[in-house]
Amino acid sequence: MISQVSGTERTKASAPEYQGALGSLSVNSSLPEVLARGVEELRTAEQAGDRREVARCGLAVAEANRRLGRIEEADRAWKASYRAARAAGHEGAMAWALWSGGTLARQRGSFALAYRLLRLAAEMGKRGGDVVVRGYSLAGLAETGRIQGDYEAVGRLHEQLLAEARRRGEARHTVWALEGIAQMHRNTGAYDKALALFEEAAETALRAEDRRGWAWALRGIADVVSVRDGEVERALSLLSEAEEACREMRLSSALAYNHKMRGNVLYRAGRYAEARDLYARALDEFREIEEPRGTALSRLGLVKARARLGRDAARSAAELAEVRLMLDRIGLRHAREMVEKAAAELGVGPLPDSAGGGDPVLPAGGAEALRTADVEGLR
Description:
InterPro entries: TPR-like_helical_dom_sf, TPR_2
Radius of gyration: 21 Å
Distance between the termini: 37 Å
Organism: Streptomyces wuyuanensis
CATH class of the domain at 251-354: Mainly Alpha
Pfam families: TPR_12, TPR_2
Keywords: Repeat, TPR repeat
Number of strands: 0
Protein name: Tetratricopeptide repeat-containing protein
Structural class: mainly alpha
Oligomer: single chain
Order of helices and strands: HHHHHHHHHHHHHHHHH
């Protein structure tokens, strides 16, 4: 367990996506509360004919719906927020709506659209003089590239954003950047560096009273102590702490990833039946919120656990080929390597070819958007 950290109090985490009449909401506010307040204030703003306030309240509604996994509602809300901001002639509000839309696109696995919307948001935020939305949009570009495995393109941008977040005293973005850099180190086998960064992120989030960032950091710590040290019970305890925070705030995606990670920890420990049940649970949760990346990764874990429990090798190979195709279509650069490694581990290769396979690449403009992104507009 990460205990309370002593020392000088740092800036508390804020939630700049909650604006206008919703500005008093905390980063730790439960999503149902945010949604209820957002809908109420949105109606009031519409009745008053205040287009800028309509845009602000619509943004909160979009974000609450997105994080609750209500994809269609989130899609309608960010677009309505953008239209209201455009009618009001407010570029900052337009940028926030585009950021929300780009984040939703990434969550849905639509990476080309995510790059396009997030880059537009960053450019519009710079023109409108909104430093915060520009920073969030650049961070969104960096995270999109990181998820796809293009660490060369996003590593420098993550470091730049971390330095800028620290300079500005933005605890929430400091935590985000630390976790992103830690994840890249973890995925490349630099476990000691990864653990140190995840622990720093957890401590920073705790001091800033950012329970969302804290929960994600605990998940990262649990992963590293499981894969590096084989500390199963410690990892499961950390995940239980994180799960409690996710449930309090109704963080649907974070909770599903927590369950998938619990499956990973149990699988590594050879507790295959328990891992199978957790992967199946996470798979249902990801399908419910229409998140294709989590869906594919949970299915990969489920195939591996079932194979360890005696599933026919030919059937396992066929299912792995299907998962490989799913991951290829999403656009994850490391998908083929992940699945081929699983096939070798289970002794079920070589895998049958699947139509539409091939080495995935960043969408057109994606790598360039990441390499040319800068933080000058934040200063």
